[in-house]
Design brief:
Number of domains: 1
Radius of gyration: 22 Å
Helix content: 55-70%
């Protein structure tokens, strides 16, 4: 009976933060893997802005526009009465 229930009593191993980062770095470093994953994922809104920013150089004008758009989310102009 113990043989049949041993899988229940064994705790699953947890992935550490370091291991998780290594996995993500490996996936991120392999463009083919990332492209395949993103084929079936619909990205819009702020996430699409982050994704586009990731593809651009920090000195690019479009990068700066997206950066300002993301940073200024929820800000409103102060209108004096």
């Amino acid at each position: 009976m113990k043989l049949l229930t041993c899988h229940i009593t064994i705790k699953p191993s947890e992935i550490t933060f370091k291991e998780q980062n290594q996995i993500l770095d490996h996936i991120g470093g392999k463009n083919k893997i990332l492209e395949t994953i993103l084929e079936d994922v619909h990205i819009d809104g702020v996430i699409s802005n982050f994704y586009e920013m990731d593809m651009l150089n920090e000195n690019n004008k479009r990068y700066q526009e997206l950066y300002n758009k993301i940073i200024n989310v929820g800000e409103y102009d102060i209108v004096e009465k």
